[in-house]
Amino acid sequence: MLSLTPINKYFNRDLFSDPFKSARNELTKFDSPFEIDNWFSEFDKDPFFKDIPIESPFEMKEEDHEYTIQLNDIKDKEFKVDFNKKENKLSIETTYQSTTNNEDGESSYTSSSVNSVVFDKEVSFDEIRSDADESNDSLVIHIPKNVESSQ
Q1: Minimum mean pLDDT among 12-16, 60-64, 100-104, 146-150: which range?
Q2: Is the pLDDT of residue 144 over 90?
Q3: pLDDT of residue 19
Q4: How many CB atoms lie within 10 A of CB 79?
Q5: Which residue(s) pair with 68 in the sheet?
Q6: How far is CA 102 from CA 29, 98, 105, 107, in A?
Q7: Domain 58-150 annotated CATH 3.40.50.11440
Q8: Distance CA 117, CA 69 (A)
Q9: Gap between the Cα atoms of 48 and 142, Å rounded
Q10: What string of DSSP letters covers 20-79?
Q11: What is the mean pLDDT of the chain?
């Protein structure tokens, strides 16, 4: 007689169960949106992500008088930088488009992302400037701190 081993014996969960059930259970136990933010900040510590590198698209440094943000690999990309004064938040939208022609015709690819940084110290938004360094294929954004509010 042929005996069949249930496939879920080889997995830690029932294959026909709701894959998002545990996430929904986690999200419903929060009392405030701030607790949800904390949950997501710990998200990359899950063992599932241990071998997946999660990298920031930019490098940020804080100095005494300013913050600097460096974006690398800027060739063929478009950037839109926006500052929300009320939230003290800088948003950087990056768009990349490419079009290739081959024997089957033309194909195109578009990628877009928005990354934001909220500064803990008030900044002088009207003095934000950027410097492009084509030799290093990078863009550096200088965000001066508001000297009046830090005193």
Answers
A1: 12-16
A2: yes
A3: 58
A4: 14
A5: 61, 142
A6: 52, 13, 5, 8
A7: no
A8: 10
A9: 36
A10: THHHHHHHHT-SSHHHHHHHHHTGGGSGGGTTS----SEEEEE-SSEEEEEEE--TTEEE
A11: 76
Strands 129-133 and 138-144, how do they pair? antiparallel
CATH 2.60.40.790 range(s) for the chain read: 58-150
Give per-residue pLDDT as tens, 25-70.
Answer: 655 555 555 555 565 566 656 666 566 555 667 888 999 999 999 9
Phi-psi region of 76 (alpha: psi -120 to 50; beta: other; left: phi over 0): left
Q: Read off the pTM.
A: 0.58
SS3 7: helix
Tokens at 145, concatenated = 């701190």
